[in-house]
Amino acid sequence: MKIIIDTDPGQDDALTILLSVISEEIDLLGVTTVSGNVSVAQATENALQTLDLAGRPDIPVHAGADRPLLRAPVNAMHVHGRTGFEGADLPPASRRATPGHAVDFIIDTVMQHPPQDITVCAIGPMTNLALALAREPELRTRIGRIVSMSGAFSEVGNITPSAEFNIYVDPHAAEIVLASGIPLVMMPLDLTHKLHTSAERLARFRAIPNRVGPVVADWLTFEKRFEATKYGTDGGPLHDPNTVLWLLRPDLYQGRDVSVRVETGSELTMGMTVVDWWQITDHPRNVHFIREADVPALYDVITERLARF
Ligand code: BDR
Ligand code: CA
Q: What one-character-per-residue DSSP string does 237-265 give?
C-alpha cells in the first residue's frame, strides 16, 4: 500500500509514522506537515526527527499550511508539550524539509500514480488536503482513500465540549474533504478513547530492547499525563496510530457507513461532527465510521512492530 501521511506531530503522530515505515505492507511515499498540535515549522522538525529515529532520512518531508483556511490557529501544546514531543528528547533533525510545498507534493504524487493507488492518512487538521482538492479537483477521483483520525459521535469533543481537535482546528477544510466523495475511513474519539495507554502496555513498549520502544513509551507517558487525569482512566487515549493499524489489520476494527457532516456556522458547536449513526436522514453515507476494535490485539501489533526496529 502506497501512502502519504499528512500530520502535525505530536507524539501519537510520530508513532503512526514509525509503524508505517517498519511495516513491509506499507510504502510511505512522503510525509506532509500542517499547523495543528504545534506550528508547522515545529511539526516539520518533529517529522524529520521521527524519520531519523526510524533510520529513514530518505523519506521526503514537505512543509504545508501554516494556518487553517479561515480561522486562527489553535494548538494542543497543553497536551503534547511546548515542542509537541515532550517526554523524550530526540536530537535535532539531520536535514531540512524537502523543497516544495506539501500541497504540491500531494497533488504531484497522486497525479503521477495510477488512479486510486494512493491512500492519504490524515492525522492532523485537513488544511493541506482541502487546499490540494481546491487546486486539483481531479484528486477526487485519483486519491484511493483517506484514513483520518478525526471527529466523534457519542464522545462528542476533546478540545471543546462539542468538537474533536483535528476537525475543530480547521472545520472548513474538513467540510471540503468530507464532501469530496473520496472514500473516507474515520477513526473518531469513540474508538481512540478505548485504546488506553495503560501502565502495563507502556511497560511492554519500554521493555523492547531497541531505542524506539523506550522513546515511544516516554512520549506516550507524557501525552497521557494530561489526558488520563482528564478522563480518570489508566492511561490516555491512543489516537492517530489507528489509521495505519487499520491499513494493516482492518479485521481488528468494526464500523458502519454513515453520513458525517461538520458544523461551521455556530461558534458554540464549531467543528462538531454530526454523525447520522441511526440513519435518520438520506444524506450520502460519506464515511466509514469506526467505533469498535480488538484493543488487546492492536497493542500486540504495535509491540510486535516496534520490536522490529
Ligand atoms: C488528535 O488531536 C491531536 O492532538 C492528536 O495528535 C490527534 O491527531 C486527537 O483529537
Ligand atoms: Ca495528530
A: ---THHHHHHHH-GGGEEEEEE-EEE--S
Angle, CA 300 vertex, CA 299 and CA 304 arms, to 5°:
115
Encode pLDDT of 208-240 as tens digits.
Answer: 999 999 999 999 999 888 777 878 888 899 999
Pocket test for ligand 1, best of 79, 162, 239, 243 (most atoms within 8 A of CB): 239
What's the pLDDT band for 101 if we cut at 50, 70, 90?
Answer: very high
Instruction: DSSP letter for 117, please.
Output: -
Distance CA 105, CA 151 (A): 26
Other CB atoms within a 10 A radius of the CB of residue 120 amount to: 28
SS3 for 181-206, per residue? CCCEEEECHHHHCCCCCCHHHHHHHH
Residue 42's nearest CA partner among 11, 77, 90, 84 is 84
Instruction: Outline where 70-145 has alpha helix (H).
Output: 77-80, 102-112, 127-135, 139-142
C-alpha cell at 58: 530518505
Instruction: Give which of 201, 252, 248, 188 is closest to 228, Cα–Cα.
Output: 201
Ligand 1 centre from 300 Cα, in Å?
Answer: 22
CB neighbour burial string for 219-253, b if at least 16 within 10 angstroms, e if fewer: bbbbbbeebbeebebebbbbbbbbbbbbbbbeebb
Tell me the CA–centroid distance for residue 282 and ligand 2, in Å.
Answer: 31
The pLDDT tens digits for 21-33 are 999 999 999 999 9
pTM of this prediction?
Answer: 0.98
162-199: pLDDT as tens digits? 999 999 999 999 999 999 999 999 999 999 999 999 99
Domains recognised in the chain with CATH numbers: 2-306 (3.90.245.10)
